[in-house]
Amino acid sequence: MKKIIFAVFVLAVITDISAQQYKVITSVESIVPSGLGRSRIIDSQEEKDFEEYTSEQTEEDNTRNKSKRGDIRVKNFEETKLLNFYNIAGIRFQNIAANDAVISSKLNAMAAEGWELIHVVSGVESDAGEKDGQGIFITRYVFKK
User: Fold this and answer.
1) Number of structural domains in the chain
2) pLDDT tens across 51-107, in order?
3) Residue 90 is assigned to a structural domain of this protein
4) What are the strands, taking DSSP E only, across the chain?
């Protein structure tokens, strides 16, 4: 009897591990002066198999993957508008608070769908000087189910 219970437990653990899914949601917030940029939350509605776009290169075999870069593009995605960090008068704290509320709403919706937030990573490409005028603040939210 103990062996049967142990076997069922092991099977349940293996099934749980193999059934894990991961999902990445990205927020892009513009830090372009004068509010000219675009800010969004992006949520892909398609799945892609990384192996279709992966090639292995060794000394013996320099075979390239035959897929085109355009094949990687996702055409089905959810795009949620956010406000830009800046407007014509400068940094806009109300916009940051509004974005926080919208992002929190998205995170709460994901949690309600059974997704667990397991990692967050951010990066900035900011203004590189007088003539640049470009910049984004990007955050990736990694979920597990």
Assistant:
1) 1
2) 888 888 777 766 666 667 778 888 899 999 999 988 778 788 999 999 999 999 999
3) yes
4) 22-30, 39-44, 77-82, 86-87, 90-91, 116-125, 136-144
